[in-house]
Amino acid sequence: MEFMLRIAAWLIPLLLPLLAQAGIDELPDIGSSAGAIISPAEEYQLGRMIMRGLRDSDLVLDDPEVTEYVQAIGNNLASHAGIDGQSFQFFVVRDDGINAFALPGGFIGINMGLILETRSESELGGVLAHEIAHVTQKHIARQIEAASNFGLVSAAATLAAVLVGVAVGSADVIQAGVAAGQSASIQSRINFTRAHEYEADRVGIGILADAGYDPSGMVSFFELMAQRARLSPSWLPELLRTHPVSSARITEARNRAKNRPTAEQTISHRGYRLARARLVVLSAKTPAEALEHFRREADGREAEASEVTRYGLALAYAHSGEYGPASEIFRSLRASNEEVTEYHIGLAQTLLWARRDNEALEVYAEGHRLFPRNVSLTVRYAQALIQTGQPGPAHDLMLDLLNNINPSPTQVRLLAMAASASGNTGDSHYYMSEVHLLNGELQLALDQLRLALYTPEITAIQRERYDARMREIREALDEQKKKRKRKPSDSENFSG
Q1: Quick count: other Cβ atoms within 10 Å of Cβ 167?
Q2: For the segment 221-255, what is each residue's pLDDT rounded down to a tens digit?
Q3: Is residue 218 in a domain?
Q4: Which helix (H) or strand (E) holds 229?
Q5: Of 258, 291, 312, which closes a domain?
Q6: Cα angle for residues 159, 164, 165 (degrees, 5° grid)
Q7: Domain ends where: 258, 285, 318?
Q8: Angle 409-421/425-438 helices, nearest 10 degrees?
Q9: Whole domain around residue 114: which residue ranges?
């Protein structure tokens, strides 16, 4: 409980002044369009701040393989959402609860526990498609608009606290957020309305079908949750608290799914099965527990077990320190399925943990040759290079990758680590400024650039790059100050 309250205590004081600086409370309150209250850029800024709080509280699962899988399935679904200019970032929450949620700005989180509870990729896709629909239909912005009578800054901050509480299934965070926002009546406005849920079902089923998944996947998962809740009234997953499922809603969604043909598209579900097996190991209380789980699945015939069970066994063996059996299984899997990056990574990591560094780097190098710019493999390879005292090549790998993808703060931080370890202090500060920019921390980004400019022996080209970035940030900060001077912000009501 104290841990959750610390999250809220950290989040609310941070959000109030930053949202005020962003000028959210200066938007004209005219008409009923959600876009008139909070712009997409401001939604993104709010979501980015919440994400920073989740990361700083170690609630975001930092596993490149699982993250890449969830982002890939999310991107596939979002590409069929029929909305231009909306970016999405999908992430996994380090929590056993069964829940998923959408944050402002297209950030969509899904708990480890929910992924493990699903029985197919279509069920997982159904949950993600539902959350994508909440974003595309502007449901979050509408909730902020509904609470605007209480002041947009305080309403947005309260919404942020409630969403964090939803993410971790904690009523304490929600209550603390409501108290900090000084608007208890806002709490009743936060949960998506029944109309929003029906709309998200309708739009989400269409997205799911257009992406090539079974459109009944969304319905079957909600049916499973509702059935379990009926059989055990004391068991109510957070997903049903935040997304109430009635029999009428399930019936309507089922009828929609039946009448919605699936697009002709071949989807490999291997990624889902491997990610799920990986989460079994990562969520186990002990490596021995995970090992026992997959041994039961193998039923005494490890060599004849399914590909996914063998992958889980290899991971569990590696996490248990039994590197011999783990590397043997990974070698066999890689030889039979060279196109699966998880097997290259698994073997290389096992060899690295066994202190067979040269062999591990050879496996990574071969994998990188086969799959250049694969995100999870490149990140793992760079981590291994830094660990084995080769930060220069790690820097080059990450720089090439991040110049070709939309990077996360964690990925840019790894680039900064590589630059620092290779003695390139100026660029290390420069990359850390980019981390702060991705987190919405303009002043901290500016501070890092000052440190970069103070670094001895930077080249003229580096100095020019740092100066240019500093000018951009200063212009953004100046614009924020001008907005604050034009109208006093809500946050001033909470000072002193």
Answers
A1: 27
A2: 888 877 776 655 554 455 545 555 667 777 777 88
A3: yes
A4: helix 217-231
A5: 258
A6: 95
A7: 258
A8: 170
A9: 2-258
